[in-house]
Specification:
With 149 residues, this protein is of the alpha+beta class. The protein has six helices and six strands; from the N terminus they run H-H-H-E-H-E-E-H-E-E-E-H. Strand 5 and strand 6 form a beta hairpin.
Length: 149
C-alpha cells in the first residue's frame, strides 16, 4: 500500500473503521470492491473535514500549500493508485462520477469528492492551522462550516 494511503486512513478515517480500510486497500483482490465505500463515504472523521462550496478545488488546495501533484484513491479505476498533477486529478475525479480522495500532503491535507462529483466535496485538513485557513478560504468563497455559519 502506498504511504499516502496509510497516512490518509490514519489521519482522516474514523478510528473504528481504520483497520478495515488498511486491510482492504492493501489487498489487491478486495481493493476495487472496497473502494465503492467512497461513493457515499460516512467513514471520514468530520473533525477534520470541511465542505467545499462551488469553487476551484485545486486552487483551494494550493492555497494550503498543496504541491503540484497528489496521490489518488478512487472508485474510478483509471485514476486509482496514481500520482497525478493536482488540477488534472480534480477534473478527472469530478468527471469520473465515483468517490475519490486526493492526498496532497500525507496525513495533513487531502480532498474528498463523492460520486456526485462537485455536489459533495470536502477538504480534509489535519493541522489546526490548515483547518483554520481552509475554513477561512471557504467562508470567503461563500460557504459555511458545519455546525455554524
Amino acid at each position: 500500500m502506498h504511504p499516502h494511503e496509510v497516512a490518509v486512513v490514519r489521519s482522516f478515517i474514523l478510528a473504528p473503521r481504520r483497520p478495515r480500510w488498511l486491510e482492504s486497500l492493501g489487498d489487491p483482490k478486495r481493493r476495487s470492491g472496497f473502494l465503492d465505500r467512497l461513493n457515499h463515504c460516512r467513514d471520514l472523521d468530520e473533525h477534520f473535514a470541511r465542505p467545499i462550496p462551488y469553487m476551484d478545488v485545486a486552487a483551494l488546495l494550493r492555497s494550503h500549500a498543496a504541491p503540484a501533484g497528489c496521490h489518488v484513491i478512487s472508485a474510478v479505476a483509471d485514476i486509482d493508485g496514481r500520482e497525478m498533477p493536482l488540477a488534472e486529478a480534480v477534473d478527472l475525479a469530478e468527471a469520473g462520477g465515483w468517490g475519490t480522495i486526493l492526498s496532497c500532503i500525507p496525513g495533513h491535507l487531502a480532498c474528498y469528492i463523492d460520486e456526485r462529483g462537485s455536489n459533495r466535496r470536502m477538504i480534509l485538513a489535519r493541522e489546526a492551522d490548515a483547518s483554520r485557513s481552509a475554513s477561512t478560504a471557504i467562508q470567503r468563497a461563500g460557504g459555511t462550516r458545519p455546525g455554524g455559519g
